[in-house]
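Cross-check.
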Amino acid sequence: LPSKMLVLCSVEDQDRMIERFESVLQGEPETWLDGKPAHTIRGNLGFFMEILHPDVCKGHGLKLMCDHLKIPLDECIAFGDGDNDYEFIRMAGKGIVMKNGRDVVKEVADEVIDLTNDEDGVIRTLQRMEEAGQLTFNVGS
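Predicted model, tokenized:
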């Protein structure tokens, strides 16, 4: 089964398209995958939406990577701005959302920064954290 489907639509039609897909995918148990409905996620740029397998999200990917590398989740930093970053931001030890992020991810963030991704918010925040001694690097351990 596919893990993700991207649906392109006009900005004006995005809300209507999301409502339509959600009514079909979440309302009919015969369309569910592994007994769960697919996730419908709004694209941050407004001209697309994502339909994800119920077990697919950035948060699951982060957990798998951390388990594999033997890194505790609470030692990870996640940056995001869109609905598809929700679990990622929530699960990381420090979830940081850009100024231009969607409200739904800002609500679960540990910090909302005053920079956008276009203003190099990620690197500038990491630099600020490093200068403040808030980053630890355990290379080769």
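The chain is about 30% helix and 15% strand. The chain has a mean pLDDT of 86. Passed to J.P. for a second look.
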